[in-house]
Amino acid sequence: MNQKNILLTGGTGLIGSRLTEQLLEKGYRVSHLSRSAGTDARVATFLWDVDKGEIDERCIDAVDIIVHLAGAGIADKRWTDKRKKEMIDSRSKSIALVYSLLKRKKHKVNAVISAAAIGYYGDRGDELMTEDSPPFDGFLATCCIAWEKAVDEGQDIGLRIVKFRTGVVLDKSGALAKMATPIKFYAGSPIGSGKQWVSWIHWRDVVDMYLFAIENESLTGVYNMVAPKPVDNKKLTQAIAKQLHKPLWLPNVPAFFLKLVMGEMSFIVLASTKVSAQKIEAAGFKFKFPVVEAALKEIYG
User: Fold this and answer.
1) Over the stretch 152-171, which tens digit does the pLDDT of each residue have?
2) What pLDDT, in 10s, does the model give residues 167-187?
3) Rounded CA separation 171/62 (Å)
4) What's the pTM?
5) In degrees, to the nearest 5, what angle opens at C-alpha 51 toward C-alphas 46 and 56?
6) 100-106: which pairs have CB atoms within 8 A and are 24 or more residues apart?
């Protein structure tokens, strides 16, 4: 049995809930930091309110590793100024609140493993992005830089820091559901030019990569959390349609229309971000789903 204690922020989200299951199966003890009381008897839930700067100080008792997944959804609401602030604060202020607790209370936390995002690289055409590539200029990149900087503060208190710049996570819900819905109703088509790169990853590989970081104490720094074979938007749309046995007959959705409907948020689907998985593979991580067709087949079965 593994008696390590893992504390998750964002533990009830899509990835957090699945990571929790995997950790419990492997014999870890798991607790959550949450805004509301937990419903899983196997998981201790401690309350916090990031806006008010309130946190249950017992949350770090006996904890070895913190996994930071909390953050307001990037594509959930239109990007108003208020929403943008929320997106940055929910990621940066939350980890700052945890660090302020670690600084004033005795603990044995030795690592923070945090989500980050490939929004850091922005819209880069056909250029292959590595962890050393410079950030883009734009809101998403600004959000990602603030997020990573807040996480890096943990180095000052001697913590091992791992940051995963996550691509488009393929799962039955989330981004994939938004792409698949029009296809199911025979109204699917590529977006914009269709040539923009989509750096995707199957949700199982996401969970496995977090486990990999938890279990490999030598792993530190920033890693891209993307499958090794990115595809363009047209190919991804075609692969989803093939898996769902639906035809694609409509012309591409024009970029100007998306900008009209989604505002600045249209950047998410129109930006071309081709990201390398070489660094995490070189560290010894093995992907279960390196190819998009196999990933979709597993999801839609």
Assistant:
1) 999 999 999 999 999 999 99
2) 999 998 878 888 888 888 888
3) 33
4) 0.95
5) 20
6) 101/55, 101/57, 101/59, 101/60, 102/60, 102/154, 102/157, 102/159, 103/157, 105/57, 105/60
